[in-house]
Amino acid sequence: MHILITGGAGFIGARLTRTLLARGELAGRRIERVLIADQVAPPADLAADPRVRVHTGALLAQCQALADEPLDGVFHLASAVSGECEADFELGLRSNLDTTRALLDALRRRTEAGATPVRLVFSSSVAVFGPDPAIPLPAVVGDDTLPAPQTSYGTHKLVCEHLVADYTRKGYIDGRSARLMTVTVRPGRPNGAASSFFSGIIREPLAGEIALCPVPPDTAHPVSSPATTIAGLIAVYEASREMLVGRTALNLPALNMTVGGMLDALEAVAGRAARELVRFEPDARIAGIVAGWPKAASAARAARLGLQPDRDFADIVRQYIAESTS
Amino acid sequence: MHILITGGAGFIGARLTRTLLARGELAGRRIERVLIADQVAPPADLAADPRVRVHTGALLAQCQALADEPLDGVFHLASAVSGECEADFELGLRSNLDTTRALLDALRRRTEAGATPVRLVFSSSVAVFGPDPAIPLPAVVGDDTLPAPQTSYGTHKLVCEHLVADYTRKGYIDGRSARLMTVTVRPGRPNGAASSFFSGIIREPLAGEIALCPVPPDTAHPVSSPATTIAGLIAVYEASREMLVGRTALNLPALNMTVGGMLDALEAVAGRAARELVRFEPDARIAGIVAGWPKAASAARAARLGLQPDRDFADIVRQYIAESTS
Questions:
Q1: Catalytic residue at B172?
Q2: pLDDT over 80 at A287, yes or no
Q3: What angle do CA B96, B99, B104 make, to 5 degrees?
Q4: CA–CA separation, A205 vs A275, rounded Å?
Q5: Chain A residues with CB inside 8 Å of B132's CB?
Q6: Distance from A119 to chain B by nearest Cα, in Å?
Q7: Cα(A178)–Cα(A251) distance, rounded to whole angstroms?
Q8: By the number of CB atoms within 10 A of the CB, which of A84, A325, B24, B322 ranks highest?
Q9: Is the pTM value of this prediction over 0.90?
Q10: Residues of A assigned a catalytic role
């Protein structure tokens, strides 16, 4: 089978690609080809795999060409991140709304020309939820909580969830939208996501560096390790229509943490000195964005697919240490 | 003040224009100019009013030119109807999604260039609600019911609600989305809307003609008279941000009826002979679309604005008779 992974050179995309290549199969079919589409080149180990083809450049211009390739499945992960979209409204519209629309229309034309509808997993986000003044956010957001996004990023993710559902209803694709929790611990440097500090407050201290935390320690948020997130994306791809029940988006499993609880786990795994490298420096812009996000999430439909959250945050810290030193 | 009414030559749009011209003011300001933008020419009485300017043609191509006019408020009513969108997917995308997006972007650029953000009422629809297999529809859909649209029309209305909310959050417009119930009794001939029969089963018998009803008499649905719908659109325009509470869409008042109840009212007002002109002829296509719509709706936020549903369906029948014979 042939798989397209948009955003395949990013952290989640590269990890998903690596996992799929190691498995060698998806939904019971041998993986012959993985197309990575990204603005930047993928890591060298992926580019070197004979099953990998790389398309580098802006996705918006490439959607039709990609859909014209032999194609069985798509993981659509490419996205501008939340902070970028708040800072540059047009970038957000173009990267997260127009690009998804162009991809869906290219896949639709493929089906209209007689091809089998492509299975597509769209990576949505827990950022679709937010506290609209008229609609208080429940303590725990579930699959069936009413989304009221408080960022352009969350708005575009929600809009695309509904487009994916409608293109699926019409039979143009076999689409499913999975809402990712905040993925931590990400390696590398801070990125433009407002949630970037959820990785930084663990990653930097483990490297002996000072980390700035822009929100208070009682800030609560649902998170997930990279491994659990990748397992969720693959399970949602492999699920039958019957197991998914509806066409609406489902939440991926969440470990519901506070910043303080994350730092307790850091201390338990790496010692007090590591924790003391975290300095609280309030940042109103970041805090404002985070205040519009859920404090905790549940994932009943994902649980029916056999998906469970990470056991505890110390596990997540250890997963990061093991991988960053291997 | 200067007001743009998209779809201003349609049934709701022309009636809204007529009502506004008769009032002479909106939100406490004198109406100097009404721009009617529609694919077809408006009724002669509107075109003859010295305060009216008419822009005829596809709205998509005109959005920037319209936003470049002096402008204080917009009623964005232009839309392809549900049946058309199911039959022609690209028409639905173009008319209901791309056009709204183009209008919002034109208004955004206006604000970015220094103009006061325009107040905009977007006419959404009760068709945003539907029974996704994973999310049963409640017996009565409220402002805070999770929408899961089962048509492209409902999908695009929902998507535009969220775009209006986000452009409002960013300060580009002062937008508010009102979900219209099915408006009955519409004059004229059946149109492409799957809900067209909700008018036909009253209008045709009153004209001494046979009407075909494509759904069984126990089909339940929330409806509203033209007058109540127009009053709702104006009240949502005039409401302060505080009265609206949130940026999410609100339901307009609904009179919750069954087809049988509507025919009882027809008989009470116009006699048994009128009712006997209605023939039940099942139509699977129409019934399938209607089955995905709510059976009843509530409108708590509209009630806080002082808006109430029609008192009973006999009132609605009498309103139609009085207007169609005047």
A1: no
A2: yes
A3: 115
A4: 7
A5: 165, 246-248
A6: 19
A7: 6
A8: A84
A9: yes
A10: 153
The answer to whether B247 faces chain A, any CB pair under 8 Å, is yes
Q: Which of B158, B165, B170 sits opposite A89 (nearest CB)?
A: B170
Q: Which DSSP letter does residue A10 get? A: S
User: Which residues of B are less than 8 Å from A152 in CB distance?
Assistant: 166, 170
- The CA–CA distances, whole Å, from B279 to A62, A65, B205, B276, B317 equal 53, 52, 10, 7, 19
Distance from CA of B145 to the nearest CA of A (A): 7
Give, in order, the Cα–Cα distances in Å from B295 to each of A316, B178, B258: 47, 18, 9
Could you give the domains of chain A? Answer: 79-324 (3.40.50.720)
The answer to whether residue B326 scores a pLDDT higher than 70 is no
- pLDDT of residue A310 exceeding 90: yes
Q: Is A183 helix (H, G, I), strand (E, B) or coil?
A: strand
pLDDT in tens, B153-191: 999 999 999 999 999 999 999 999 999 999 999 998 888
Q: In degrees rounded to 5, what are phi and psi of residue A102?
A: -65, -40
Tokens standing for residue A136: 């208080």
Which stretches of A225-276 are DSSP H helices?
Answer: 226-238, 241-244, 259-270, 272-275
- Most A CBs within 10 A among B166, B168, B242, B244, hence the mutation to make, goes to B166
* pLDDT confidence tier of residue A79, bands split at 50, 70 and 90: very high
Judged by DSSP in three states, B76 sits in strand
ipTM (interface predicted TM): 0.95
Average pLDDT, chain A: 95
Residue contacts between A and B (CB atoms, under 8 Å): 84
**Is residue A13 within 8 Å of residue A77, measured between CB atoms?**
yes
Distances (CA, A) of B300 to A296, B184, B244: 28, 21, 11
Give chain B positions within 8 Å (CB) of A108: 89
Label residue B136 by pLDDT band (50, 70, 90).
Answer: confident
Burial label for B30, CB within 10 Å (0-12, 13-18, 19+), is: exposed
The pLDDT score that the predictor gives to residue A191 is 81
Among B162, B170, B246, the residue with its CB nearest the CB of A158 is: B162
pLDDT band for position B255 (50/70/90)? very high
**Amino acid A131: pLDDT:** 87
Measure in Å the smallest separation between the Cα of A146 and chain B Cα atoms: 5
